[in-house]
Amino acid sequence: MTTLDHPVSPAAPPPAEPLTSIVVDGVSKEFALQYQRTLKKIALAKLRKQKVKDTFLALEDVSFKVPQGQSIALMGLNGSGKSTLLKLISGVMKPDAGQVLTRGRISGLIATGAGFHQQLTGRENIFMNAAILGMSKEETEAKFDDIAAFADVGRFMDTPVGNYSSGMFARLGFSVAVHVDCDIFVADEVLAVGDRPFKKKCMKRMEEIRESGITMFYVTHAAASVRRMCDRVIVLESGKVGYDGDVDEGIKYLHYDDSDDEPDVADEDSADEELASDI
Ligand SMILES: Nc1ncnc2c1ncn2[C@@H]1O[C@H](COP(=O)(O)OP(=O)(O)OP(=O)(O)O)[C@@H](O)[C@H]1O
């Protein structure tokens, strides 16, 4: 990942045209699929003239630009390449072809608990995670009470996160991510974790992030929250951009509004609708 010049400064006068926040230009990412794990199995497979490894193109020639302040829902079926694209944008991974350019500081949540150390306490992990996201110790100290209040893990703040439930883990990670001053916020299915009150709090916070002019790029399957929070939908299909444009058209494109959904899927959708309207 390369950085675009001139990070957004709060002191800068508002430009006539929004600055470009993210450029994804002809990006491809290939993964190696290892069929045999041990040396013995590899040797046996080679003797039997079986394939020991293969490659898989998770992203193929993906291109788009995002203006500063736009809020994008990255959608698509399981395995279509959403998380991989998010990792390339956040700089966790490098593309094999093409380039990704971003402007300013990036924060967000790529994987629940990524960068957390099981043996360290919630408090220690907040400081470590915040440092990874580019916050100084003083900055973290100043925001610590807000981060702790948002995570709301109570007395568990001073116990090792290895003893946390998966929801508590997610709350802590999300809480640090949303308290970082950033220009781009990326998030992978944040609303898929946590209980209902926490989901509500996350959505509210994400709305605040959006309203503050931060570029948002997040993966979701929830049509109602996309309608509420996004200006644009990008749909990935087997690693390629299948759709890029208006939100309502994007949801239609995905058939997420079809009335012949399975009952449990319809329930999930109406819960999402309810959650979005609750806020
Ligand atoms: N490190 C890796 N090694 C090999 N294959 C990988 C790796 N990471 C991802 N893949 C493969 O790349 C494809 C895209 O994965 P990715 O996680 O980006 O999809 P996704 O759209 O986020 O899926 P989901 O909705 O299930 O989270 C999948 O087939 C996955 O198995």
From TrEMBL:
Region named Disordered: 257-279
Keyword terms, alphabetized: ATP-binding, Nucleotide-binding, Transport
Extent of Acidic residues compositional bias: 258-279
SUPFAM superfamilies the UniProt entry points to: P-loop containing nucleoside triphosphate hydrolases (SSF52540)
ABC transporter domain residues: 42-263
Coiled-coil region: none
Pfam families linked: ABC_tran
A single GO molecular function term of this UniProt record: ATP binding
Similarity section: Belongs to the ABC transporter superfamily.
Entry protein name: ABC transporter ATP-binding protein
